[in-house]
Design a protein that fits this description.
Largest sheet: 10 strands, mixed
Shape: globular
Enzyme class: transferase
GO molecular function, one term: L-threonylcarbamoyladenylate synthase
Organism: Marivirga salinarum
EC number: 2.7.7.87
Helix content: 25-40%
Keywords: Nucleotidyltransferase, Transferase
Order of helices and strands: EHEEHEHEHEHEHEEE
Number of strands: 10
Number of helices: 6
Strand order of the largest sheet: 1-8-2-3-7-4-6-5-9-10
Structural class: alpha/beta
Distance between the termini: 47 Å
Strand content: 15-25%
Amino acid sequence: MAAEFIKLFEENPDPRKIQQIVDILKDGGVIIYPTDTIYGLGCDLTNRKAIDKLCWVKGIKPGKINLSFICEDMSHISDYVKNLSTPTFKLMKKNLPGPFTFILPANSNVPKIVNANKKTVGIRIPNNNIPIALVKALGNPLITTSIKDDDDIVEYPTDPEEIYESFKNLVDVVIDGGYGNNNPSTVIDCTKEPAEIVREGLGEIIL
């Protein structure tokens, strides 16, 4: 069955449509949704069936996935991260929500999620109301990963209708939140002291 194609407005996402998508997530669905950078592929991190499906869509083994979570706010982070230093907390506080992925030391909850020995986790709090509303209604973070395009010039697809045509038989929902960006998040490795930018993306970090 083809995925549902659901239009949401970033300024004011329709709560009924958000709940419709959350119900699908809770049932093990995989969705494609907008962020403040590229479109993401995501699922409920508490649903093992959904994680397996996301990895199948991505073409990787569950134990090999680089884990990044979309969180509602900073209060979620301590559930998955250990030894969050004061400088790292201040750095994140200054820059979130925003187009950044912070790589942090994972606590014991993270390996259980994918049944793998993961020592780090990426944390995202995007500056986009759609994923934040989804996480808030879901009650826990989304596992998130990028969707890639086969086109070498446009690395990340940006048109939700084109994304739908490519993924409609692979995922359960594609959210049309308008054109996306083709520049991913800036990635900051906070397992080192001082923190190190490991990928230059859309965001310019405020130190």
